[in-house]
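User: Reviewer 2 asked us to show a designed sequence for the structure in our supplementary figure. I'm pasting the structure tokens here. Could you produce the per-position amino acids so we can include them in the response letter?
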């Protein structure tokens, strides 16, 4: 991830210093500190009424052309579950309902730096898909026919969701 060379407030050249236990860039003129925080992301593990999983093939970087779960960045002021359903709707036109949270994850991605990812299990009744420009294709697959998902985080979410699903209800 690229970092600042100049203060975004006063345009002074930034300097490096240990601040709050980490090596950070700061402005010697106005004391602005470049704190680097993770970007929040919501991911949708989406199931239709046949218990098939929705996977999409990405039409943009990062992970261009890779099979993945739908998802994207939270907007300011947005609840994570709202972002999850909005991204699902934008990418596939599907209207989902949150079933439960699967987990919260931290990942480093070259393009964006640190990500904080919240994954939800989402259920759809109507599974007719219309994809947007962010996808090459999308579809619901029974678990033994899911295209190979190679993004490590998305593999982890699929594994974590399945672990929970294998626990008998009411036991
Ligand atoms: Zn400054």
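Assistant: Here is a per-position design you can include in the supplement:
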């Amino acid at each position: 991830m690229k970092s600042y060379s100049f203060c975004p407030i006063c345009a002074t050249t930034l300097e490096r210093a240990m601040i709050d236990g980490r090596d950070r860039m700061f402005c010697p003129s106005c004391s602005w500190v470049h704190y680097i925080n993770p970007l929040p992301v919501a991911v949708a593990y989406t199931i239709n009424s046949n218990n098939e999983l929705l996977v999409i093939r990405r039409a943009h970087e990062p992970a261009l052309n890779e099979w993945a779960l739908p998802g994207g960045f939270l907007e300011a002021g947005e609840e994570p579950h709202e972002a999850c359903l909005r991204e699902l709707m934008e990418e596939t036109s599907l209207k989902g309902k949150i079933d439960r949270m699967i987990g919260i994850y931290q990942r480093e991605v070259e393009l964006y730096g640190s990500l904080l990812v919240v994954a939800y299990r989402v259920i759809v009744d109507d599974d007719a898909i219309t994809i947007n420009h962010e996808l090459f294709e999308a579809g619901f697959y029974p678990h033994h026919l899911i295209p190979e998902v190679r993004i490590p985080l998305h593999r982890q979410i699929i594994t974590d969701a399945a672990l929970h699903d294998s626990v008998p209800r009411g036991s």
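For the response letter, you might also mention the following. The chain has two domains: 1-36, 39-165. Residues 74 and 83 are 5 Å apart (CA to CA).
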